[in-house]
Amino acid sequence: MKDLQYFKTHPKIDAHNHLNLGMRYSSYLLWSGLPIPDFPRKMNGLDDMHDIITKYTRPRCKTGDDVISLIDMSIRDAIADGVTVLEGSIDIGFVVHFKKDLDKFLEMVSDFTEKYRDKIDIRPELGMGKTFDKSKIAKWAPILLDSKIFRSIDLYGPEVEDGIEEFKSIFAQAERLGLKKRAHVGEFSDATSVRRFVEYFDLHEVQHGIGAASDESVLRFLADRKIRCNVCPQSNVILGAVPSLKAHPVKKMLNAGVPVTIGTDDLLFFGSTVAEQIFDLLSNDVITEAEAEILVCEGVQ
Fold it and tell me: Which tens digits make up the pLDDT trace of 201-249?
């Protein structure tokens, strides 16, 4: 069986990485100097995770320099894992930390792609949370997307359809600009919701999407349309979306012909890199060596 070092040194993609939370806890703790109590640990769904964010990580990030430090840590930890393509999400809300100066925010993003261009291909993504101020998103997103600095967009938050119509025009703009369109759905929601989000926004990819595994027709739909799912097994286990790694449906998705990558989601909370997750899936007989090879090679181009 291939060892962990093989997967660490193999070129690979991380296409599901929220860069403000994409570093190891050890990296974060050294920078912040503020430990998070009883951490890391299993969490009771997204509400538990958001409670930690509200109490500990969000208050520590107050300035543009803080945002820069967090993203820099995440990039360096991705490089250490052998990631060669990083499609990292940068939340639109961090514009506030740059005193709502869109030019400074964009300069920060482009500076990162230039700084690390010899070590990693950074493809910035504009992340939008459903619970963030909609008026600010409507004002800032069109300008940020028109900059052509971002390569993709992502919508996250509660996996419900309520309110998604407010983001329709932004996704239409992304389509016109040739950007990759993604949304978080199917970690805690069902197969029907996965299909509806894909159809409503004409998505290219789904962040998570494991709920689709409960319906063969939705798996065929994703496979036929070549909708890639950027799955995060450790996140799914830690948050309780699946009961265990052995119960994870990634193999079923692969067998159905759905394109799949393995992402870190929030390395700070979940503690396993791309390489470590693929190795763990293989070690626990969730996937075969051939399937591990498919996962490590998907999206690297």
Answer: 999 999 999 999 999 999 999 999 999 999 999 999 999 999 999 999 9
CA distance 266 to 273: 10
On whether the pTM is more than 0.85, the answer is yes
Give me the CATH topology for the region 4-297: TIM Barrel (3.20.20)
In the set 87, 159, 187, 291, the catalytic residue is 187
Domain ranges of the chain: 4-297
Q: What sign results for the dihedral spanned by CA atoms 291, 205, 21, 174?
A: positive
Residues 243-295 pLDDT 10s: 999 999 999 999 999 999 999 999 999 999 999 999 999 999 999 999 999 99
Q: Pick the closest to residue 245 from 204, 290, 279 (CA basis).
A: 279
Read off the tokens for 183.
């949304």
Confidence of residue 165 (pLDDT cuts 50, 70, 90): very high
Per-residue pLDDT averaged across 4-32, rounded? 98
CA angle, 144 then 92 then 192, to 5°: 105
Q: Say whether 187 is catalytic.
A: yes
CA angle 194, 130, 273 (to 5 degrees): 65
- Is the predicted pLDDT of residue 301 greater than 80, yes or no? no
